[in-house]
Protein 1
Amino acid sequence: MKLIAVIDDLCFVKEGCEGSKSDDLSITDMPYAILMVILSLLPVEDAVVTSSVTKKWRFLWSGLTQLNFDARKSLSKIAYNKLLYSVNKKVEILELDLQNIEKDHDPDSNYDFPLTFPSSTVVELVSLKKLYLNNVTLRDSVLEELLTRSPHLESISIHDSSYLTRIRVVGRCLNINHFEIVQCFDLESLYLSDFDLVSFIYKGLDIDLCLTNLPKLKKVSIYQGPAALENNVFNQISSCASSLQDVTITFCRPEKSAKLGSIPQLPNLKNLMLTIGAYEDDCLLEFASIAKACPILETFIIEVSFSN
């Protein structure tokens, strides 16, 4: 193999010698610690191949403390087979969790959720009730078609998906009662309207969020970082205020942009949890006034994360 040929050609000169051919030492004579550093920089497959260079190196690669495999092709094949199985067997629950442990991984390497299979078979999940996608690329048009082709879908959760920019879900024909979007950092707007949604979760960056004509919406959890109050998150949920029973909102550094004067009346709210990032000298008493808009409130929790 090419790697072996390169290694065989490498040599170094023993320190203190004049560099004659008799003083040339093979790379196989290099100190163990240096060899391990070199192997640690190679792909796993190439590191293993070095075991055939010399008997001395037969088990050298097994001393590596970390093995990093490139399993993208394998994972894509597994995801494809699982999706194909789900279509053929008419499953009710589909979970594709392809979370990548690399902090700086390329989103382009994520599995791309298809609308059709290579055989030209259309992806129709007619029996699907629950869908969970993590680190799966899902584009706006694909999501729209997916909802159309999944008439019995009740719960959809999308985490760390690339290329979702504008989500618009509208229609009385939809059966979705749980909608969850987490860390989809390309997202710019989210519009949900005119169906029987019961619970909604959003965690991510500042977006244009609109929840309207959702008469059965009871549970909402929203995190938009520092922009939560700047965007007046209470105003974003105001059109559903009369039906809400459980609300969780996370704020970061609220004193920078607090707009608590326009809190809508929440006549049926029973549980309210506010998670607030603050400094030790911040005054958070203004948040207590929120309770005035909740006449039947049973539980009110303010969780504060203080910074120095």
Protein 2
Amino acid sequence: QQQDDEQYYATQFLNQAKNHSSEVHTSCLTFLLDTVENTDYAWNLRRGAQNILQQLLLRSKDCRELFANDRMRRYIAVISEGRGRAENHSAESVHLVEDVGAMLLQLSAKFGQFYPRFSVACRWLEERKGVRIAAAQSSSLDPASSITTSTGGFSIAQLRIGRDAAMLR
């Protein structure tokens, strides 16, 4: 089964790269986004595609522009819904949301001055989904780039509550 899946995805990848007239890395990005967004695929496949997607976004300006301008809103919406076919649905969906949040956090730290949408999307995920992005960082992230260092370890919602309390005084 796994070997058939790998062959199928390799064929899909080659067809996708061949059919697109744009450069290969943006075609790969589109294919990976579609794979992660497809809720019929297994969680481990979606998370694996997410990891490769992160590497593409870190290395390619064209991929970051395509993602930030065209696909990020839909991608975040699909990921935050947390649907899938796995039995341990809720745990796996949380892991995927954490992976996406960690990716957005890393992109925000490296490219936030050029792409402020990464920071906004990361904050939205943290606030709306209740996932502590800074606590969910993978080992590949630089600890200096976490939200906890810039906000003192509080979530955005907690910072807003503190701000409102200070304004009342």
Protein 3
Amino acid sequence: MRINERMFHLRILCLLPLLGLSSCTYLLGKATRMGMFDKALGKNNRPGEAKLIGVIELVNPEQNYVLINCEQRQNLPAGTEIISQNADGTKAKLKVTPERKGNYITADIKEGLPQVRDLVLYQTKPG
């Protein structure tokens, strides 16, 4: 009889934190509806979304262009603005040109200093 009583207390002890967690999400939703937050926190503070295009393999600063190696053939029209980003977060703006060969595309450097091995991203949602 003593063991059953302990199990009962253990179950109640485990259920209390679960009830507290569920009430937190309930209160967040209620606060959002009342206008205390702009929108749900997860959606409001997200940066823009981007798609990985490829990696820079060659930078020609004299002629102001880069050569990008893509995993798959990309169907980006000429004039599309893309971004290169290196490991420390430095970004450069690029503009796709019509020249293509296999999985390689070229892009003109519009702003910044892209480097070899920078990731090239296409921003699908501005952020």
Protein 4
Amino acid sequence: TSLSDAAFCTSFGPIVPGGRWRTLSPPSLAHHWLRTSERLRRRPIGQTLPVSPCVITCFLLLAERADFPLLLLVDRLEDLACLHPEADKLKHLVIKTDTKMPVFKHPEYSEETLLHLESLVPCRESQVSTLLSLFGEHQHHSFPALFIYGHTSSGKTYVMQTLLKTLELPHVFLNCTECFTSRLLLEEILRQLQRLSTKEEHPPLVSCDTFNDFIYSFKQTMMGPDLQNQTVYIVLDNAEQLREMESNILPGLLRLQELTGRNVTVILLSEIVWELLRPNAGCLEPLPLYFPDYSIGHLQKILSIDHPPEYSFDFYAAFINILLGVFYPVCRDLKELRHLAALNFSKYCEPVVQGEANERDTRQLWKNIESHLKKAMQTVYLREISSSQWERLQQDNGEPGQLKGLSAHAHVELPYYSKFLLIAAYLASYNPARTDKRFFVKHHGKIRKMNFQKKHEKTSNHLLGPKPFPLDRLLAILYSIVDSRVAPTANIFSQITSLVTLQLLTLVGHDDQLNGPRYKCNVSLDFIRAISRTVNFDIIKYLYDFL
């Protein structure tokens, strides 16, 4: 077959990690060259790679007779010499694969800017490309409203902030959780807009009583020379909070471009779908854009970027792989995983630093860190201790429960006897009164009948909620669980009142009851377990539901 026919002309697209071949050559030739290229990339420097001479001959003929040039893509120019002596003739057709080409395309920005943007938003190239195409150029009218939604820690807020700051687009960024009323929201938009227009750090405050006042002030502010001929972006994070405001706020913001006659785009960031946010009266439908959750491959790539310079990329990537293998089934939050990686990497490196293992000894490194990752699962992920306390726990090689006062729930700093009062109140609220003899009396007799009743009970007391109890029962349990004798003084009763003031206990009924006051415990099981650990009291042994 003659190789001069146009049907045999070959064109190869750029080969980059994750790229692919595009070919118009005969299938056998393309397949052979693809296998050769893969073997070539994996070849260590200096090692020869035997290739069939007919392949080189075919490509030489194609390069000479093709209507468009043939491009060979290799990592190193010296790779050509290991293929075939005649391959030197193809040097002028070589394109180095380390020549980075930007994924994003935009006529208004340079390749350096787009490459920098690409490095800042890994694994979100598709969403950023869509946003760039919607934004257009500065003077072009953009889409009036966008609705970006996705689960927590899917990169919505970070991508929008990075995109607007990197491209230096005029924008207003607000968190609807902080601006919890319509007046605060509208005035904050005007304040940030004035800062863009006047370049003042602290512009004068603008009062905004109604939405009509907001529209008038918005149009006046947009008349500035810096904002008149370009698009202004108003980004509202946690947009689901707009449902709690007046009914005209959300429809008015979505029609802001129409009402003001200015080049403005409103971008809503939310964790819920648009159907749950749409007003009942109807409004202008925004353009939706979905941010999917990061896959385990995306998390591996993003977390591996943070590798310390003193260690190799492969070593840190192996650590991230172990970390994701432990935490990915229970935690998909990128911030939490990054926090866990920063805390546990020093422990992972200990065998390497001490000379007991090298960076490739993955099995020994895993054995060294396995127990510490289990501790991190119990404490750091639940945020029961701070980062410095977790590092101290690693150095002491202790259990999480051995450090006192580390629970985030125990930061109330209750007095010693107030903690026991709260424990006694919890036991009185969640244990049936008939079980007090079993838990707090040494010789309580037979319990066969109690076990029989327990077997036939349908619902757990923790599912039914706390039950009220009298003051006498609270004090009786307190005297049983405290080692030393506690006299019923005014100090004890004042601490009960303090617990009611802190809303840890609730007073049921009136204070002037003839039979004495009745209380109910308001704290959760996790809270009371944290309090119990600070006084070395195992409350689980005294709970009827956990027998």
